[in-house]
Design a protein that fits this description.
single chain, mainly alpha, 64% helix, elongated
């Protein structure tokens, strides 16, 4: 991602959110951090398997795979957070007259 107002806008945070909900790790791939998405997928599978082994026999599907669903929810939030921060930074830098490190602010502030 290049700096400056002429740089292309980052991915829409809501589009990233929708992709992350539909397919785990796809939001991270859209953001250009596929390794982070694969890490979430790995821990989703591992914790889903662990909770399957630890859950009582009469637990439902969600209860048996609760660890995997927890990591799935965290990956959705993480992808949206990254997209939201990148979008806010882009909007701030693209704003004319916006305060930034390159502005005319005194160095003692």
């Amino acid at each position: 991602m290049t700096d400056g107002p002429a740089s292309s806008p980052p991915a829409n945070p809501y589009l990233v959110l929708g992709a992350a909900i539909v397919l785990p790790a796809s939001g991270h791939v859209m953001l250009g951090v596929p390794v982070r998405g694969l890490q979430f997928l790995f821990f989703m599978v591992i914790l889903g398997w662990v909770t399957t082994k630890l859950a009582p026999a009469d637990a439902g599907f969600i209860g048996r795979h609760a660890g995997g669903f927890l990591i799935y929810a965290l990956s959705i939030l993480d992808a949206y957070r990254i997209a939201r921060i990148r979008h806010a930074i882009w909007v701030h830098k693209a704003r004319p007259g916006g305060d930034s490190a390159e502005g005319n602010a005194p160095s003692n502030i």
